[in-house]
Amino acid sequence: MKGxxxxxxxxxxxxxxxxxxxxxMISAAKxxxxxxxxxxxxxxxxxxxxxxxxxxxxxxxxxxxxxxxDGDRSAFIVIAGDKGLCGDYNHLVLEKALENIQNSNVTHxxxxxxxxxxxxxxxxxxxxxxxxxxxxxxxxDEARTITDDIIQRFVLKEFDNVYIVYTGIKTLSVQNxxxxxxxxxxxxxxENAVEFLPGEGxxxxxxxxxxxxxxxxxxTSSSLAINYKRMIAMQQSTTNGEEIISELKLQYNHKRQExxxxxxxxxxxxxxxxxx
Length: 276
Known about the structure:
Elements: H1 3-53, E1 55-56, H2 58-62, E2 73-79, H3 89-102, E3 105-112, H4 114-123, H5 140-155, E4 161-171, E5 174-183, E6 194-195, H6 200-275
Parallel strand pairs: 1-6, 2-3, 2-4
Antiparallel strand pairs: 4-5
């Protein structure tokens, strides 16, 4: 490779490194904000879950959210990203989801994010509703949009089971794809539960909050996970780019030194020729 070509390539890679550094910083900033949302969502889910399991009421056993249907038609909510540049994040989620979907009688699919939508569209699955951009910066109202739609369809018996696929976080560096049954709810009465005789609307409200909390937790967990993966991917890209630049600079300097040496040798030979 000639010196000018090496110089152009160094300039091009240097511009790319600037972009990956900027994306790394953006993802790190988003992570700081999302970490707080994730912690709040996890705490909220824990409190709502404890409240629901401390209630004893005959209405629970008869409630449509807990009472199973007489079929095996399943719906899957799959939370992936709206774009790539995040390592193996989307691949792991979609492969795990596809594995479970192929082993189930799936009649409805609800992808969250462009990547999930495009993936299952190519596979020919029936996608009733697609949720886009909800995973970028999840808000409770966005989680409510999904849960309200899913609950309504479940109560109308469009399907019998609802599963959610998302990325769970043990630590930021240790993530795992979770496949969790959302409906019908699994309820085991706590022996320390207190007798509660509310109206039917109050039971609906408690269980709606429980499902909403699970959905919001899944969205925030996935969003935090994808931003961590993107930050790591951009950090690795930046490191690789800088290493390539260092190697190209060595080649460029070597070429330049060769050129200078050649010019000096030619000049020396020319002087000797004139003296003769």
